Amino acid sequence: MAAGIAVLEAARSRTGGFSLAFDHLPGGAGLYRDTGEALSAQNYRRAGEADAILFGAMGLPDVRYADGTEPAPQLDLRFGYELYAGVRPVRAYPGAPLALADARAADIDLVIIRESTEGLFASRGKGIVEDDALARDTMVITRSVCERLFDFAFDLARRRRQRGRPGRVTCVDKSNVFASMAFFRKIFDERAARFPDIAADHHYVDATALDLVRKPWEFDVLVMENMYGDILSDLAAALVGGMGMAASADIGDAHGLFQPAHGSAPDIAGKGVANPLAMILSAAMMLEWLGHRHDARACRDAAVAIEDAVAGALAGGGALPRDLGGSADTAAVTRAVLDRLA
User: What residue spans of 164-248 are helical by DSSP H?
Assistant: First the structure.
């Protein structure tokens, strides 16, 4: 978190035109262990009153609710503030290791959008275990959420096309098996008709897993159910360096939450060796969203400046984090990004 805030302040100083004020709120598994609450009701409300929510990595493996699930205040915020669009960018940066030997892997630049409030995750806290013999979780797909989700995906593809991307949205589903997924695809096709300038196609989720490994450079924007997106976004992150590069956002009509997609890595906590780039890139996503939402060019320019600084730091070779095969610690990576924003 400290690295993200430092980079935000540096980008603000460089571009000017906006100000930042931070309200630091406690939350997470450690707080739950100490107080019985992963996020207090007061801080839940305060988060919702902010222009944006910048979230740190969450989770401790040994801290669980009575039913065996993990305290996850980010999920409470997703559901409570209807943050239906989970945005997971996947981009190859020069200097970062790529999992694929094919030279075209350097062109990977896609976005996975997972619906973040329903799907199989709608069963969170509501699953049933009967007599230690049968367990059941239910997938929920609603028209109202899907329509907003697909409109978001097509709008994002349109904006990406202005930056040279193909302008295509792929619906990822399993409509040949599940009625819920056939309904998901039906609504996708209906909303696609409203965006005739953006290409639309379909991919079964199993075929998508195959093609994310075989030819990920052919994808642009992929939109899918919650659980599918949870799995495939991690797979895709591995193509471009791993979870240390995995920024994320959860977007609704009135709120946006931004956090690294990786966990808290308690085994290296406090050692100063964690890769801060997912946090830094999540902060850039926050500025991009604020700029788009408020028509604030300065915020968008600052977001681009951060992304360019990350690209420059990685391409320079001297600030490669340890999880990417380098030797730079958290401070060194952060300093390399800050130097390029000076």
Answer: 179-192, 205-214, 226-239
The most distant pair of C-alpha atoms in the chain lies apart, rounded to whole Å, by: 62
Instruction: Report which residue type is found at 97.
Output: P
Give the integer Cα–Cα distance in Å for 143 and 174.
Answer: 17
Do strands 53-54 and 256-260 pair parallel, antiparallel, or not at all (unpaired)? parallel
Sequence-separated (6 or more) residues with CB below 8 Å from residue 164: none
Per-residue model confidence (pLDDT) at position 135: 95
Amino acid at 175: S
Residue 317 has pLDDT above 90, yes or no: no
Look at residue 75 in the predicted model and tell me its pLDDT.
86
Residue 195 token pair: 């965006």
- Cα separation of 156 and 168, whole Å? 10
Q: Which residues are 203's β-sheet partners?
A: 172
**If we measure between CA atoms, which residue out of 206, 175, 197 comes closest to residue 188?**
175
Among 170, 167, 142, 173, residue whose Cα is nearest residue 155: 167
Q: Which stretches within the chain are classed as H helix?
A: 2-15, 29-35, 41-49, 73-80, 143-161, 179-192, 205-214, 226-239, 277-293, 297-316, 330-339
